[in-house]
Amino acid sequence: MKQIFTHTLASLLLMGLVATQANAQQFSKRKQYNSIGVSLNAMNYFGDIVPKTSLPSFRAAATRPNIGVYYMRRFTPRFSGKVALNYGRISGDDSKAADPNGPDSRYRYNRNMNFRNDLIELSGMAVFDLIENRNNYLKRPDFVPYLTAGIAVFHHNPKGADANGDYVNLQPLQTEGVDYSLTQFAIPFGGGVRYRVNKSFDIGLELITRKTFTDYLDDVSGTFVERSTLAPGPAQYFGHDITRSQDPAQGFGSFTEPGQRRGKDGNDWYTTLGVTVNYILAPRVKNPKFR
């Protein structure tokens, strides 16, 4: 997955630079245009609370909605810039995601962690069309596949359901003794297709994956800490007591002891797959002045 990410991002940046240099002078300002749009997506994550520990494992039943709005500017026949604001939720539950009888998942089932996390994301992205349009927006192609990549900043706040089903903010509990930030950066990349409906509207299908720089979207990352170092109440519950079984006969007699693995290595990822509706803001045509 890391190789795919690296190659996709490098290729997109290279193509964007080449396209910008080669076409900037040929694509007049009269042909540039702006558009606004909305997206409705299905949102998932990959992290510590998933069915398997390999990318890109996710649980379809954990899919949650994501909505977004964006502004896009066409600069060259192939290259556009986009600023987007998205809001969505990711979730996971060991009791539902992990097989209690699977040799590779029994541990996670007995760990019994759960979370949900609402994310607000602001991104700036480059969009590279695989089919160019050297004309104005009225003569754009009917069907255009594209690649996209950029940078994003997002705010998140993981919560867990306690024994009564009430959701509790997890970050203040420091269940692993880590005071992680709720504002993080990510690198979004992916692609999609656009279809021209009429002179003003396009609809599309888009898949965007985000590489984050945190392993705490689900509040699970490192190792268990000494129970007595956690504050009584929710911190001890989510940091230790939530575990389902500590029966030595099942091989879990000491898995909550300090220093034992609570999560896996590697940062969390999240993705969106959805439909976009794009409305083109028709550029104003300035008539020449005559004297």
TrEMBL record:
Q: Which UniProt keywords apply?
A: Signal
- Check the UniProt entry and state the signal peptide residues, or none: 1-24
InterPro entries recorded for this chain?
Answer: DUF6089 (IPR045743), OMP/PagP_B-barrel (IPR011250)
Q: Report domain DUF6089 positions.
A: 27-219
Q: Which domain of life is it from?
A: Bacteria
Q: What is this protein called?
A: Outer membrane beta-barrel protein
**Organism encoding this protein:** Hymenobacter citatus
